[in-house]
Amino acid sequence: MGTLTEQQLTDITTTAFTRGGIPKHIAEHVTDVLVHANLRGVDSHGVLRVEHYLRRVAEGGLDAHAEPTFTKTSPSTGILDGNNGFGHYIAKEAMNESIQIAKEQGIGAVAVKNSSHCGALSYFVQQAADAGMIGLAMTHTDKVVVPFGGTEPFFGTNPIAFGFPSAEEESVILDFATSTVALGKILQSKEKGQSIPEGWGVDKDGNSTTDPHQVVSLTPFGGPKGYGLAMVVEIFSALLTGAAFGPHVSKMYGDYGQNRELGHFVLALDPSVFTHLETFTKRMDIMIRELRSIPAIEGNEGVFVPGEIETQTAKTRKQSGIPLPESVYEFLMENGR
Question: Which of 104, 109, 195, 295 is most buried, judging by how many CB atoms fall within 10 Å of its CB?
């Protein structure tokens, strides 16, 4: 296990990307999204993925130089073509466009096509919250989750995220996969040689397993609820843009020379079109504080609002450093120092 400061990890990761042929401005944007995840303790979506992305670039499945192109389709909507570049860079630009539209129209929605894996969605809804907007982001992935009642995977982990600005409190950020757990957590458990909780994944026979090496499919959270929400995410992310859906999406870990052609959907909503922004954010503060004041059950630390634990982790890691698995640390040291 190695530990780096936020700045060290940022510098080393950016260097690793630029040495891999990624233009500096794109490398900086992608690194920012990855380090954001590591700071929040969502290590499965952080710099663990650098080696993977570099391999996709080297084998031709990801265009390191691609710049997204935006087309406005109505006063409040648009489509952004990622041109098969880095999803982190593309999704960030999509949310920027959504925010700018929302400032003029009250709401801005952008569908993204021809993208790739974009990392932690919390980053993009935080963008909106930082701009005083309510943010929504979702994306699909290759098949890895069995539908409720089924034995073969159809949808991906299909995450969805929401961000809400507040006045004095930290923004409320809700970011979750529609599977019981994100695939990255299975990969992280493999990396650390740890077992996984019962119910996270199933083996080739459809049976639950605690061995991450035996996992071939994940389960939807909440049974039919997670399955239904995964389908909703797929519709917004793939069907709206004409992207491949479900089992037709190319694999993230495999098909390295093939473009992913993933879709995303992001939205920014200006609360001031319904109420004064100050009124909204102050009431958010009140809600947060009243939730925290609810007595905790025995053995529980307390009541947290969505994203609060991750925010606390980020504050701790900014001071004490970001821990990395030994193999990830060594790869970055070798390629980015």
Answer: 109
